[in-house]
Amino acid sequence: MSPEHYSLFVPRTGYSSSVLSFELFLCAILFVAVFAFWLAPGGLAWALSKARLQRQSKTAIPGPSGLPLLGLVFAFTGSLTHRVLAKLAESLKAVPLMAFSIGFTRFVISSHPETAKDILNSSAFADRPVKESAYELLFHRAMGFAPYGEYWRNLRRISATHLFSPKRISGFGDFRQKIGLGMVGKIKDLMVRNGEVEIKRVLHFGSLNNVMMSVFGRSFDFGENSSDVDGSELEGLVSEGYELLGIFNWSDHFPLLGWLDLQGVRKRCRELVAKVNVFVEKIIEDHRMKRVKSGDVEDESPGDFVDVLLDLEKENRLSDSDMIAVLWEMIFRGTDTVAILLEWILARMVLHPDIQAKAQSEIQSVVGSTRKVSDSDLPQLPYLQAIVKETLRMHPPGPLLSWARLAIHDTQVGEHFIPAGTTAMVNMWAITHDERVWSEPNEFKPERFMEGDVTILGSDLRLAPFGSGRRVCPGKAMGLATVQLWLAQLLQSFKWVASDNGVDLSECLKLSLEMKRPLVCKAVARV
């Protein structure tokens, strides 16, 4: 090989080192630029809209940048998300409004009553972000997740006029009372057998049966020793759906992961929906057959939700698939929320025997010793109602109001510009534990609700556990009536005492805010 040819393979040291230095310099600049991009207030998703935001608003929304690309993802994979977000908002002086990102999803969250009202009562936030599990479980065709529009407005009319009307709530009063008395009997049996009771399971099965009667018009036998095949199947379907809705799904925030279904959420949802369709379609057909046999003769019973949907006028009538979605969602909205809230209340009764005794004295003065408490007694039990309100304040079942809102167009919240497509949340737990909003917020004091008229149905954002505005929970009145009656029955029947292991108030946020360790206590019979 000639010297000329050989020289082609000899590295030119000076030239190579200069190129390498330049490449390293470019990499360093790129790294700094990308890192600075990720460090923008609110994180990656907000940084992607930075130029537009600067044109619309001079004031950036304060917020953590989170981890590069991931944002605050790990705050949502833990069990105390509401507390983490409350602490971040306080430390960043972002209580009124805080921006953050999870992957490519842009969020704002309010921890203050005024900005919470701006979000929940604004037509700009009339939609909900539909996560994959909710979509696959058909909830985009039900009240909770249906897109804002004529179909959703029709569902809201049906809910207000038919499903949750005062007449219908009152019509189910006798059945609520019957279920409550059944739980009292179950608790007595467990006390005889075990000397203590894990109250969550009793409340869960009672609440599930209450919803089944309201929705399907029949009761089921639930539990480990049940011989009711339909009841066992239904309990499994509800438990699976509840778990799927509570899972943090990475695909919701990282679109490129969607087709992979790494967590198996889509597969599990589709398998569940196939079973749900068969189960609910059979119940709908049974109702239709019953109508044919009776010649559509109306009886005096209030009818269940299936009857209501079948009775709708032609212009409002739903398809069978939409009926299944609506009925299925009703089951999720009404089952565990009631049971979880009652478990928190009873835990507080065990820890505060003076408050428990005061409530029992109130029931005694109104009801006496010769009859059982009923719905008609509840308006005369203000202290019992105050206990329910105080528990909702300290342990809101939906501390982040369960399901978020979605900005359907550009809007303002206070002085801040919010682009369309932003997910908005309210940290109700932070509001109800803020000493600037509530005096002694960490003390359990039902008396605070005896002194002033604080409504909890959505108009007062200091305590709005059922949400507010267009997307307020449609079943709030029925849920409250159920909780108040069952609490009155349980307090009239038992004195609630701690077991040997005491009471642990540790929290665990799944779909709802649950007790991390189920309440095990003693129920000493009173009557």
From TrEMBL:
Keywords: Heme, Iron, Membrane, Metal-binding, Monooxygenase, Oxidoreductase, Transmembrane, Transmembrane helix. The keyword Membrane applies. It comes from the Eukaryota. Pfam families: p450. InterPro entries: Cyt_P450, Cyt_P450_CS, Cyt_P450_E_grp-I, Cyt_P450_sf, Cytochrome_P450_78A. Heme binds at C473. The chain crosses the membrane at residues 20-46, 67-85. GO terms for molecular function: heme binding; iron ion binding; monooxygenase activity; oxidoreductase activity, acting on paired donors, with incorporation or reduction of molecular oxygen. Its cofactor is heme. The keyword Heme applies. Belongs to the cytochrome P450 family. This is Uncharacterized protein. It comes from Nyssa sinensis. The lineage of its organism: Eukaryota, Viridiplantae, Streptophyta, Embryophyta, Tracheophyta.
